[in-house]
Amino acid sequence: MSRRKAAVKRVVLADPIYNSTVVTKLINQVMLDGKRSVAEKIVYDAMAQAAEKLGVEPMVALTNALENCMPVLETKARRVGGANYQVPMEIKPERRQTLGIRFLVEYSRKRTGERGMANKLAAEIVDACNSTGGAVKKKDDMHRQAEANKAFAHYRY
Known about the structure:
Elements: H1 21-30, H2 36-54, H3 58-69, E1 73-80, E2 83-90, H4 93-110, H5 117-129, H6 134-148
Antiparallel strand pairs: 1-2
Helix pairs in contact: 1-2, 1-4, 2-3, 2-5, 3-4, 3-5, 4-5, 4-6
C-alpha cells in the first residue's frame, strides 16, 4: 500500500446482458486464467438456474443473495502499546459488495454434491437468498467476531 497517495479506482464496465457492474464484478471473481468467456457462461447459467428455482428475475435473485451475504462490520488488527487488538469497524459500501461477491464465489467453489461451477454458484445464490449457506455463515461469523471485540471499539482510528 502506497504511503504517498491513494490508489486510483478503476471503472468496471457494465456487462452486456444485464447492464450491471455487479454482474461484471462477479464474472471477474469467477474468472480463472483470464478465461472471460468461460466465466461469463458460468455466471449467466448460474443466474438463470437460481432465478428459475426462486421464481424471480435473475438480477433480483443475485441482488437478494448479495444483500444477505454482505457484512456490515469487520475486525482489523490494531497495535496499541505492544498488544494487538481486534478492533471492530464499519465497512465502506464498495468493500461490502466486494466481500459479498468474494464470499459467494469462495463458498461456491467449496461446495460438494453439485457438478459444475454453474450449478454450484446457482445453489449458493439460492442458499444466500434463503439466508443459509456458507457465504451467509461467513458474514455471521464476521459479525459475531466484531460483536465479541466491541470492548476495543474505542481504539478505532
